[in-house]
Amino acid sequence: MFVLQFILLGAYTGAIMNGIGCVRNVVYAKLVENKKGVRTAVVIFSIIIIVTGAFTWSGPISLLAIVGKLLSTLSYAFKNPKTVRRLTVPVCIVWAVYDLVCSSYAGVLTEIFTLGSIAVAYFRFEYKKEDADNGQPL
Q: Which region holds residue 45: left if phi is over 0, alpha if psi is between -120 and 50, else beta?
């Protein structure tokens, strides 16, 4: 739906980056399911992102969508959820700015929701553990 939304908004870099993200997610899932690494896929998708970003370039704003998709392509390649969460924060920030500039208010809300989810995960899995490790009461 975000692909269609960005097309309707005339934000073609965002549209193509979201389309690539959908394909990337399916490929990553299949590779993980077959117990194979995603390192090669990261390189291939990064090249695809850069090339298609160049073809859909509509000024410096396009760089936000390109960087956001490159960072998410890298972050989703990690197995450690803590690392994925930490790398996803800047992804959400650059996409939220892109969404705002392109008038994708649903996109802005999605990024806010994702950041909230990351904050909840941090509290549940990292902050509480740090307190427990320090012998501090919760």
A: alpha
